[in-house]
Task: inverse folding
């Protein structure tokens, strides 16, 4: 399959920010389509708008052809040499983390690349766009070092809606394929299952782990690999650094400190391989420091890391819903609600979990992910924490079905999975 996946929503976000006086920082996991978005889709858009090719300066720092421009001084000199008149120049730089030395990471103010980009911004006829695959360098530091001139656009792997728009056919069959191989764009060009599996597995060893090992000078590469396996195996489960360290020690015989695990967790999330969802006390309106949940940025990568052997539908569906919420620009936490229940003659209080506490602008939603709620007891288990929030925010349960949306007597919206994934307005039904 060689269809072009247009990524219209991301392209529109870039177009909306065109010539806004800010440095457009396009972030996301490597190989999720950032380069294609910028160097193909946006490049073609500029040409269609009448921009001359010589006024579009493209530099791919992860390409050996441009290796000399990983030095910020050489990069600046090259770009400035291309600016020869007063017309607007569009500067497109791919994977800018290659121009940041490891020694500079300890002090963001010392990162020469930021000074180069800030310097270019002083020219009146440039519009700058950069991509990068490390949030520490491009998200946390960007707001301070770019002095308010950074404008982030986060790109995710292909959503199920984008995937289905490309492949069509039966929705349930498309979902099963997506739930197995995920949304890394190049997967769609692979002809066989074996090719898809091999490609996804190679991304860890040939791209992600090499990037992390080089960037952070990883001493315990086996620990990084085991930690990744553990996170992939336990998506949607509560965990923390100490718990993982204990598991590695008792199960794998690997002795490692909780502090090292905590650092490695940071590297994996900064590289966009995983996202961390913190626990939030709904009634107390406060966050718990730990434990929290980790979700894989792409479910196909998760499955590949486990050699496609652990196919827990419940956790996979939960991960896909979580990723979809992030794609839509939501902030997502794990909810905790204390409920009262009778144990024999005693009334006891215990904590129940809401899968997702979702904030989108001024709106808040509580969402439960349930593979199957045909059993009344299972339905009641899923609904109990929603009913006990005792507030008026919208409550939703998403189950794996093709049912039409409906609202029960408690005001809880029941959504089918395909309706949720394919309809961006589904939460408002």
Result:
């Amino acid at each position: 399959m060689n269809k072009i996946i247009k990524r219209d929503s991301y392209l529109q976000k870039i177009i909306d920010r065109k010539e806004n006086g800010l440095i457009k920082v396009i972030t996301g996991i490597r190989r999720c389509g950032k380069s294609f978005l910028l160097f193909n889709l946006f490049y073609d858009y500029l040409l269609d708008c009448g921009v001359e090719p010589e006024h579009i300066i493209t530099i791919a720092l992860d390409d050996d052809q441009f290796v000399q421009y990983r030095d910020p001084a050489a990069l600046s000199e090259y770009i400035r040499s291309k600016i020869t008149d007063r017309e607007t120049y569009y500067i497109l730089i791919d994977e800018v983390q290659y121009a940041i030395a490891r020694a500079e990471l300890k002090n963001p103010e010392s990162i020469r690349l930021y000074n180069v980009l800030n310097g270019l911004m002083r020219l009146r006829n440039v519009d700058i766009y950069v991509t990068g695959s490390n949030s520490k360098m491009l998200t946390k530091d960007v707001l301070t070092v770019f002095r308010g001139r950074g404008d982030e656009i986060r790109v995710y792997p292909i959503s199920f809606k984008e995937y289905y728009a490309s492949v069509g056919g039966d929705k349930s069959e498309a979902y099963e394929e997506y739930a197995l191989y995920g949304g890394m764009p190049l997967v769609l060009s692979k002809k066989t299952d074996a090719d898809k599996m091999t490609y996804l597995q190679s991304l860890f060893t040939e791209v992600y782990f090499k990037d992390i090992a080089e960037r952070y000078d990883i001493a315990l590469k086996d620990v990084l690999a085991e930690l990744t396996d553990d996170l992939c195996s336990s998506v949607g489960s509560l965990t923390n650094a100490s718990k993982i360290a204990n598991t590695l020690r008792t199960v794998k015989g690997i002795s490692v400190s909780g502090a090292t695990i905590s650092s490695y967790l940071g590297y994996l999330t900064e590289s966009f391989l995983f996202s961390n969802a913190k626990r939030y006390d709904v009634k107390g309106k406060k966050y718990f420091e730990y434990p929290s949940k980790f979700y894989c940025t792409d479910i196909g990568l998760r499955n590949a890391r486990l050699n496609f052997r652990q196919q827990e539908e419940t956790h996979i569906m939960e991960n896909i819903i979580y990723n979809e919420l992030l794609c839509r620009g939501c902030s997502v936490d794990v909810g905790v609600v204390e409920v009262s229940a009778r144990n024999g003659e005693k009334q006891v209080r215990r904590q129940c979990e809401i899968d997702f506490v979702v904030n989108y602008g001024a709106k808040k939603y509580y969402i439960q992910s349930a593979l199957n709620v045909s059993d009344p007891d299972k339905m009641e288990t899923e609904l109990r924490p929603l009913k006990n929030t005792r507030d008026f925010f919208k409550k939703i349960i998403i189950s794996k079905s093709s049912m039409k949306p409906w609202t029960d007597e408690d005001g809880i919206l029941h959504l089918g999975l395909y309706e949720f994934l394919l309809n961006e307005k589904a939460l408002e039904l």
In short: The first helix runs from residue 8 to 16. The longest strand covers residues 346-360.
